[in-house]
Every structure is written in C-alpha cells, then in structure tokens.
Amino acid sequence: MAPKSKKTEAATASAPVAPVAAPAALPKQSSQSASVKWDRVVYDVVAHYNKTTPQRTKLIDLFMVYLLVVAAIQLIYCVVVGDYPFNAFLSGFISAIGQFVLTASLRVQTNTTDKNEFPTISPERAFADYIFCSLILHFFVVNLVN
To answer: Distance of alpha carbon 27 from its chain centroid, rounded?
Structure first.
C-alpha cells in the first residue's frame, strides 16, 4: 500500500481560524419563578375554560376523558397481565377509542363558538348522527368479540 500524503494536514493547518464569539449569556431565572409562571398559566387556562365553556361541552369533555382512561386501563392490563382473549382486548380497546373519536366529532359539531364551520347541522342532527354511528361501531365491536 502506498504511503498517504500529508497534504490534507498542511492545507487545514494553513487556513486561518477566526475566533468564534461566545453567545450572549441569557439571564438565568430561578426554578421557583419559572414554576410560578407555569402554575399561573395552568390556572389561567382552567379559569378561562370554566368561564367560557358551556355546560354541555364540559359534559362531552368529561366523557372523552373517561373514554381515554378506560382505554389506558385496558392497555395497561393487556401489557401487565397478558392478552389471552385477544379479541376481547381488541374489541374493548377499539370500542373506547372509536367512541372517543365519535364524541370528539360530536363536540366539534355542537361547539357554539364554531357555528360557521357547520352552518347546516343542528345540534339535534349532530346528536342523531352520533347515536347512529355509535350503534354501527358497537355492532362491529360485538361481532369482533365472538
């Protein structure tokens, strides 16, 4: 094998190196003041939600949280204990997540602040669509269980 030339070292050594300016130091805040700001942000978001959200939408949101908790419990149970009746796990998990998606659709269609998104759909029509789609979802879930 031929010896390697040292041209690359000479080329890089002769190039002038410009000094790099250090970035300006940002003033450090204590972790206590940062946590106070985050606490205040969370408090403001919750206060705004409670003040401006209608009771019907809050009920839909609570049901969506319940569906997520049910799906999480089923997933944790499947990981910890096992998924022996896999069809049962799959149908329960699909049922919870599918119902969550349908409920999110209902929330979007019945939201009073976004009336211009669905001007022709009344809340009663949206609820009827929700019930119909829920029946179809649960029909498939029951058939998946066997």
So the answer is: 33
Say which residue the tokens 């978001």 belong to. 45
% helix, strand, coil for the chain, step of 5? 75, 0, 25
* Phi, psi (deg, nearest 5) at residue 44: -65, -40
Give the whole-angstrom CA distance, residue 39 versus residue 34: 9
92 burial level (CB within 10 Å; 0-12, 13-18, 19+)? buried
Question: Kind and range of the H or E element at 50?
Answer: helix 31-52
Residues 125-139 have a mean pLDDT of 96
Given a contact cutoff of 8 angstroms between Cβ atoms, the answer to whether 107 and 94 are in contact is no
Q: What proportion of the chain, given as a percentage, has pLDDT over 90?
A: 55
Q: Are 91 and 144 in contact (CB under 8 A)?
A: yes
What distance in Å separates the CA atoms of residue 66 and residue 92, rounded to the nearest whole number?
14
pTM of the predicted protein model = 0.71
Q: What is the pLDDT of residues 82-124, one digit of tens each?
A: 878 888 899 999 999 999 999 999 999 998 887 888 888 898 9
Q: 10 Å Cβ neighbour count for 105?
A: 14
